[in-house]
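Holo prediction — S-adenosylmethionine.
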Amino acid sequence: MQPRQIETNPAPAGSVMNPNKALWEKGDFTEIAAFMRQSGEALVESLGVTAPLRVLDLGCGDGTTAVPLARLGAEVVGIDIARNLVEAGNKRAAAGGLRRLKFQEGDACNLEGVAGHSFDMTVSVFGAMFAPKPFDVAREMVRVTKPGGRVVMGNWIPNDPTFVSQVLKISSAFTPPPPEGFISPMTWGVESHILERFGRAGVPKENISMVQDTYYFASPDKSPTQMIEAFETFYGPTMNALEAARKDGKAEEFHNQLVELANSQNKSKDAGTFIPATFMRVTVSV
Ligand SMILES: C[S@@+](CC[C@H](N)C(=O)[O-])C[C@H]1O[C@@H](n2cnc3c(N)ncnc32)[C@H](O)[C@@H]1O
């Protein structure tokens, strides 16, 4: 069964805005990314990036992976659909003196203006999975990557028992079903879909590796409850679910389920937060 998912809910009626863009501009993902910096850096370290490389970070947010990639000396272009996150990323690049790091607006479904075979590596960590046309996304990631280069994706896994998958599952239970034809972003965590999408982009299955890995949501001083409050206030998908729950008089029930989840998965020994979340790490040799 396809997982029911709510996280790319349409924009309010009457809006002409791209709903995918509206969802991510609605909140402020920087407030969530604050819990993800440590794992972003660890993931980048594991990629073996060296200075002359040119890297695309797609669905980059404010640079959780783009900033450490640039610190390693790579020339990095961060592309994201949300204008506020592109602005935040460019501020972080300027503050860090990272002159070879540029953020720009763009849609992973159609990277028009980005030349073919122009990156040694294309990275997308919980980013391109949220674009609505997955076959177009796979085709574009392969198109812009040089032959001999790599595409690396991090994707959440449907029905996984760990934190993010469960946040999205709880959220879906409080939200009306998505529109007809909607493809759940979580399908990017399923091996058969990954093979099919990159296969249609011309990549044989021998060139695709898929392994489960762990990201940590970490804060030394914010509690799991404070992190859930950040999700409810700043993370578009959770904001939408809370709005729907509120309309049904179920806001408290929704909040309590999220807090219980976060507390039960917290591994921190003190007042802070350290919550593991399993994801599918996909590496494609182009
Ligand atoms: C969960 S956040 C992850 C951000 C960042 N990769 C990180 O690890 O902090 C998802 C990101 O994907 C971006 N995004 C969603 N749909 C997109 C699309 N169609 N094209 C480009 N970016 C997109 C969102 O704006 C958001 O920044």
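READOUT: Confidence is low (pLDDT under 50) at residues 1-15.
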